[in-house]
Every structure is written in structure tokens, then in C-alpha cells.
Amino acid sequence: MDKIDLKLVKLLQENSRYSLKHLAEEVYLSTPAVSSRILKLEEEGVITGYTAQVDYLKLGYNIKAFINLKMTPQQKPEFYPFIKACPNVIECNCVTGAYSMLIEVAFRTTMELDEFIGVLQRFGDTDTQIVFSTPVEHRGIDIPL
Is pTM, for the whole model, over 0.90? Predict the structure, then answer.
């Protein structure tokens, strides 16, 4: 990847809806050249997809929480398909420390969250933190150019 590719990734993290024309102007290339570079970045797995950022509160998901789960490595083959199928799971990470998994979730009510935690506890002990506010929303990585 050269500086132009890095700048394209940075711009697309900023706004994945930028037009090819706008991107081309920013990196001083033709529109077809930018299109070709983006396709190459997608094929190489650098760009893995495009999504819309949404306000969970405006969609009625009033409870955002992080759940730590302690489980054994032997449970992963059963756990991974289970957690991937849970629609309220925003992200799940295998982590180091006292707990094995860190799971970010969004629910409409605390009752729904409590019900999910009850199901999750079949895999092991949990520790849950409910989010009061989010001063820094999810964002792309800062790419030095």
C-alpha cells in the first residue's frame, strides 16, 4: 500500500459515501484509477465492507452494555456460532485477563438484557457494565499519511 491507498482508506473511514469523483480530487488521480485502487483494496481484504452508522437510541435501543464472560477454550466451538446468531450483539472479542470474552450489546430494556445474560450464563460467569454515555463513538483508525 502506498500513500494514495492510505489516504483513500482514511477518506472512506471518514465517509464511505464519498463519490469516486470526490475521492479522485482528493488524491489527484482519475476516477477510474481510484475505482481500480478501491477494488484492489477490497479484494486484498483491507476494506472489508461499508456500513451506516446509526443512533441506537433513536431506534429504541435504550440500553447499551458490555458483558464480560468467563468460559473455557473448549466451549468456543459451541459459543462462536451462538454469539454470531444473536442480533443484539454489536461486537464480541476474545480477550486476555480474568474473562475470556468482551461482548458489546444493545437492548430496548433492562429486562431484555437480563434475559440475554441468563442465556449467556450457560457458558460461564458474567460481569456486566451498563453504559451511561459514550463520549467517543466507534471510529476508524487514524492513519498517518
Answer: no
Beta carbons of 129 and 65 less than 8 angstroms apart: yes
Domains of the chain: 3-43 (1.10.10.10), 57-130 (3.30.70.920)
Q: How many CB atoms lie within 10 A of CB 40?
A: 13
| Residue 117 DSSP symbol | H
Residue with cell 484509477: 33
Question: Pick from 133, 105, 100: which is nearest to 117 by CA?
Answer: 105
User: Counting Cβ atoms within 10 Å, is residue 111 exposed (0-12), middle (13-18) or buried (19+)?
Assistant: exposed
Is the Cα torsion angle 18, 22, 28, 31 positive or negative in sign? positive
Assigned C-alpha cell, 35: 475505482
- One-letter amino acid of 78: E
pLDDT digits (tens, 9 = 90+) for 113-122: 999 999 999 9
